[in-house]
Write a structure and sequence with these properties.
Layout lengths: L7 E4 L6 H10 L4 E5 L13 H9 L6 E5 L11 H20 L4 E4 L9 H18 L6 E5 L12 H10 L6 E6 H7 L6 H14 L5 E6 L1 E2 L10 E2 L9 H8 L8 E3 L8 H15 L2
Helix pairs in contact: 1-2, 3-4, 4-5, 8-9
């Protein structure tokens, strides 16, 4: 039986400094928090100020698990040479920042092949990861490749594609996987009942393996099964239903994995409180 205090939380803004994300998480009872390591809409950022790192290290609002998410600007298989090189350098810089914050892993969307083809795109992603990891031989932060909805030419909407990147990378020990419920559903993986969820996860275990699963993103979907459109909705108010969230929250095999929301919210975080209450209720009432 999973712990009555699961590793559960939400993505939090680092506006005002990364330590502010921990305070925001604490205010809604997070035991797990995901953050961007810099402004998500900028390629690069100034170095952390010493005061920011000190506030982070000494924060009394420390959840059990904190991990990062890379910028959505990064595309490791971009066809434009400038964007391609900028993406590699940006990921390297973000991993360095993540190491400064002692984050265990950084969730990353593999990228979009933009017409070059799936196989070519997957190979370029693996080559880019090799380039970045080789440039950071002492780096500790790993990359958790995220399942995607498959919108446009986005890679990573199939377990086999994530497995191919891992297989082609020269640094497989530095790669993990993050599963997002909304992305799974939009990509065509039917997780709408306990039985179907079990079948999908059995496929994941065969293709990739439980040992590589680093985290869950718990999001309902505004769009239908197989829509390939990435739109997050509040828990129980989208197209998926409550079954997979109940399974994830109650499963012993996921009890040590962080589970975070990426659902819409305002500055007062009221929506996070509501969604977290729904999820916690699955553990309490079983």
């Amino acid at each position: 039986m999973p712990s009555a205090t699961p590793l559960l939380g939400a993505h939090m803004s680092i506006s005002g400094g990364p330590a502010k994300a921990l305070e925001r998480g604490h205010s809604v009872g997070c035991t797990a928090v995901q953050i961007f390591v810099k402004n998500n809409m900028q390629w690069f950022a100034k170095d952390f100020a010493p005061a920011e790192l000190e506030a982070w290290t000494n924060s009394s609002y420390r959840p059990n698990t904190v991990f990062g998410h890379s910028s959505y600007l990064i595309n490791l298989c971009a066809t434009d040479p400038v964007t391609f090189e900028r993406s590699r350098q940006a990921l390297k810089a973000e991993l360095e920042r993540a190491d400064q914050l002692k984050l265990p892993f950084l969730v990353m969307h593999p990228g979009a092949h933009l017409g070059a083809g799936v196989d070519t795109g997957l190979a370029r992603v693996a080559e880019s990861l090799d380039f970045v990891f080789a440039a950071l031989p002492k780096g500790r932060c790993k990359i958790a490749l995220e399942i995607t909805a498959g919108q446009g030419t986005t890679l990573g909407s199939k377990f086999a594609e994530l497995a191919a990147i891992i297989d082609q990378c020269r640094y497989p020990k530095r790669l993990l996987v993050c599963l997002d419920t909304a992305h799974l559903f939009a990509a065509g993986y039917d997780i709408s009942t306990a039985k179907k969820f079990g079948e999908v996860f059995a496929e994941f275990e065969t293709e990739i393996g439980l040992d590589r699963l680093a985290a869950w993103h718990l999001n309902d979907s505004k769009t239908a099964l197989g829509s390939r459109v990435d739109r997050h909705e509040h828990i129980g108010k989208g197209k998926i239903g409550l079954a997979p969230f109940r399974e994830i929250m109650r499963s012993e095999q996921f009890s040590q994995l962080p589970k975070v929301l990426e659902t819409p919210k305002g500055e007062d975080l009221a929506e996070d409180r509501e969604n977290l209450a729904v999820l916690r209720n699955f553990v309490v009432n079983q």
